[in-house]
């Protein structure tokens, strides 16, 4: 792997891991902000999927759609078919950020989103050996 690509991948990982750190800090707080946890869960999963695409030499689409991004990854590695039940994270990308469709997830829902994001991280880090 060339140095420029390696550096770019490390930046994607840092940004994704920062979303995870934000989640973990929020979960430790006295009153966790669950919509923020869900939002950052989606963001981290999205960035990890895009990290994989970039590692394959693919410019990732400017999309927040987890199902779409996972499908793009699967085109390059059939193992992604085993990464299931993460598509719902897309719902947290935009809808939770604005009051138009006001919704506050439960703490249980936020924890599930976090755990599914960790599943994405583990899956991709294993494939990329990082």
Can you tell me about this structure?
The chain is an all-alpha fold and 130 residues long. It has one domain: Four Helix Bundle (Hemerythrin (Met), subunit A) (Up-down Bundle), CATH 1.20.120. 62% of the residues lie in helices and 0% in strands. It contains four helices and no strands. Helix 1 (3-28) runs antiparallel to helix 2 (34-55), helix 2 (34-55) runs parallel beside helix 3 and helix 2 (34-55) runs parallel beside helix 4. The relative contact order is 0.18. The mean pLDDT is 95.
How is the topology of this model organized?
Layout: H1 3-28, H2 34-55, H3 66-76, H4 107-128
Helix pairs in contact: 1-2, 2-3, 2-4
Could you name the key traits of this structure?
130 residues, mainly alpha, 4 helices, 0% strand
CA-atom Rg in angstroms: 15 Å
Number of H- or I-type helical stretches: 4
Fraction of helical residues: 55-70%
Low-pLDDT parts are none
Helices and strands, in order, run as HHHH
Strand content: under 5%
The CATH C-level class name: Mainly Alpha
- Report the principal-axis shape: globular
In a few lines, what is going on in this structure?
By secondary structure, the protein is mainly α. The chain has helices at residues 3-28, 34-55, 66-76, 107-128.
